[in-house]
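Chain A, query sequence.
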Amino acid sequence: MEQTNKKTIGQEGEDIAAEYLVNNGFEMITRNYRYGHGEIDIIVKDRSNNHLVFVEVKTRKNLEYGEPEYAITKSKIKQLKKIADAYVYEKDIKEIECRFDVIAIIWNRETKPQITHFKNAFD
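Chain A, predicted structure.
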């Protein structure tokens, strides 16, 4: 039960993040890109500078376990970089700047989501 609820909240958080990105001038490329055992939540193009952006979304119902962005560990960052490299290779993408953004969402379904967008969160 708890795992299902966690997955549901995560999926809803990704939906909120995707809508936020599109509303803020990003072009949606794909969602839930899988490679191996990992996944990149959202891949968009930043229209302001033509960067390819790999977005990790973290959603929490409250701050009981801390800010959502602190759930991204060094091993998660390493995994995200590996998946991003695979995406760029698979799609034969050349000559484009890439970056990693994090969107942290605090939302309990009863209030408006609190969204924090960390651009270029790590390299």
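The domain at 2-122 is CATH 3.40.1350.10 (Trna Endonuclease; Chain: A, domain 1). The chain has one domain: 2-122.
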